Amino acid sequence: MGYAHVNSKGQKYFLNSTLGGRNKKTIYFFSKEPKSPIDLPEGFEIAENPLTKLPLLKKTAKK
Questions:
Q1: Choice between 22 and 14, residue whose per-residue pLDDT is larger
Q2: Domain count of the chain?
Q3: Maximum distance among all alpha carbons in the chain?
Q4: Which residues are 25's β-sheet partners?
Q5: Which domain holds residue 46?
Q6: pLDDT band at residue 56, thresholds of 50, 70 and 90?
Q7: What are the residues whose beta carbons fall under 8 Å from the beta carbon of 21, sequence distance 6 or more?
């Protein structure tokens, strides 16, 4: 099914990915409907925008 995140308002978002741009880089995005759901990629973590409560995908800090 892929990774799903429930924000502090109780809304459920799904992590999706697509290839975009001239170099065909992987673009990660959240949506309310699963379009092309994926699991959480290694080396990334979920954060939440404090104003909009939308989930964000962030790279984890290297140790």
A1: 14
A2: 1
A3: 37
A4: 20
A5: 4-59
A6: very high
A7: 27
Between β-strands 12-20 and 4-6, what pairing exists: parallel, antiparallel or unpaired?
antiparallel
What tokens appear for 30 in the block? Answer: 């959240």
Alpha helices in 16-58 (DSSP H): none
Q: Is the C-alpha dihedral spanning 44, 46, 50, 54 positive or negative?
A: positive
Q: Per-residue confidence at 61, pLDDT binned at 50, 70, 90? A: confident
Whether 49 and 8 have beta carbons less than 8 Å apart is answered as no
Backbone region of residue 61 per phi and psi (left: phi > 0; alpha: psi in -120 to 50; beta: other values) = beta
Question: 48: which 2 tokens?
Answer: 């939440």
What is this structure's pTM? 0.86
Q: For the residues 44-58, what does the mean pLDDT come to?
A: 95
